[in-house]
Design a protein that fits this description.
By secondary structure, the chain is of the alpha+beta class. It has four domains: 190 residues, 2-Layer Sandwich (Heat Shock Protein 90), CATH 3.30.565; 124 residues, 2-Layer Sandwich (Ribosomal Protein S5, domain 2), CATH 3.30.230.10; 130 residues, formyl-coa transferase, domain 3 (2-Layer Sandwich), CATH 3.30.1540; 96 residues, 2-Layer Sandwich (Ribosomal Protein S8, Chain: A, domain 1), CATH 3.30.1370. 34% of the residues lie in helices and 23% in strands.
Amino acid sequence: MPEIRRLPDDLVNRIAAGEVVERPASALKEMVENALDAGAGAIDVRIVSGGLDMIEVTDDGCGMSAADIALALERHATSKLPHGEIERVATLGFRGEALPSIASVSRLTVESRPREAGEGWRRIVDHSQLAGDGPAALPPGTRIRVENLFGKVPARRKFLRTPRSEYAACIDVVRRLAMSRPDVAFTLEHDGRRTLGVQAGETLAARVARLVARELAEDGVVIDAERGASRLTGVAGLPTFNRGVADHQYLFVNGRPVKDRLLIGAVRGAYADMLARDRHAVLALFLEVPPEDVDVNVHPAKTEVRFRDPAFVRGFLVGALRHALEAAGQRSAQAPAAGAMANWQVEPSAPDPGRAAPSLGSLFARQYSAPQTRVSESGPAWRAYEQNVMTSPSGRAEAAEPAGDDARDYPLGVARGQVAETYIVAEAEDGLVIVDQHAAHERLVLERLKAAGAGDAVARSQALLLPEVVELEEVDCDRVEEKAAQLAELGLAIERFGPTALLVRAIPAALGRADVGALVRDIADDLARHGDALLLGEKLDLVLATMACHGSVRAGRTLTVAEMNALLREMERTPRSGQCNHGRPTWVKLAHEDIEKLFGRK
């Protein structure tokens, strides 16, 4: 029978290196984390060819003696678990595997000097073989250099990517670690060129904006929430400031960069009714929990964690994010696009002889000379808006009563016209405001539906004169029927009508004349798409967002001036009205200065 024997140390280290050192960025991460654990106040990183040829990390931390260096290069030797309490890890590293693993697949040079020592020490290990040991001249701190990574392991080397791709992974590692420690200075030099540099002592918000996106300073909200012994800090971008991929979401647990499905799902849930499904929030969140409530010993790479109470963590993140975003009110990332501004400055061309030039009357549904109104919630203009816009998108408004039109009284100004039966043009004290009527009204309907959720079910439900039958696949019927009780609380009364049909008896009153069939089908799609990945409250928020889309006034609907002003006034009172349910801005503003630039006055 085969003989059982111990594996040699160099082979054990190479096996461990397969988990710890996947690519240059993996080695760099371990080296920078060691520098942070050593109390460094400044960390300098140099890499060559994306880290394939050389990685060097220099810090001004506590340093190591010659004996400490030798011990650090042995497997499972660490200074970070003095009492052996792995369930209370307070450092980034703790396994004692990184340096010996790196030394088994590269040429590793460790130079270090404790602050109290007169000289330093250097130890060189070339693919597990000692290649040098002796004194070294360097300031207090540690310098670690990794060269020729996987040079003697061609099977691993050939799976590495191009230097450009490996460099991108390296700078992402440094960016994440620098983000978590604004009290530490970082520099990164690639192929002799400095590509990243931040000074110590910045605020967390300033460090995040510098490293993630400078726009976050204006288009983000600061997060600072506590619940029990847990705390969440960071910066979250407004829903209108989003990306097509999720590579600008940075998540940290007790200072450790992680890629955790629970936290990613919580972020998605918090933005569920504010972003389109193919858009992603931009943010950096720092969660602090008691060490005993999180297990960081899940994987050698230490990027995965496991929470003792995942429901609490998810609820905490969703609640804190939504509270901060709601506090932002009508703010949105809505500066005029540079391309659009440039188009405005194009010289006019002669009209096509075969096509009549459009008149101003065809572009504006309401002329600027139309009587303006000051809308009050008790006046007939508001009642017309309630009856014809909020509940019946296809209705007409009654005549509005004349009133003042001082733009200084309103943040979003007063309506002056409607462009292409889609955009409301309003004059504010400091510029021109353009509102997307469908996007804005969709947000207002959603907030009304949410507010109605705490009221009387009868009052927020509108019975259909004739119940409507909606045919669906049997599995879709099952999903919707399972949530029938919760949907009833929202004003949508549904019951099963055979294996492949549902009977709708009532819809939320705020939706007016919505397409019942399309509404139910979209709700079924939402439930199928998210399955059990979301908490019930988050699923219902998605349902409300779907309802709001069906119940909002459409583009192409001509509005009276009274209706336009009523819409503006409700936007000013409604939280998060600066963005629609899909993360797009509901309004943009051209400041007086922007308009003057367009005409060459400035």
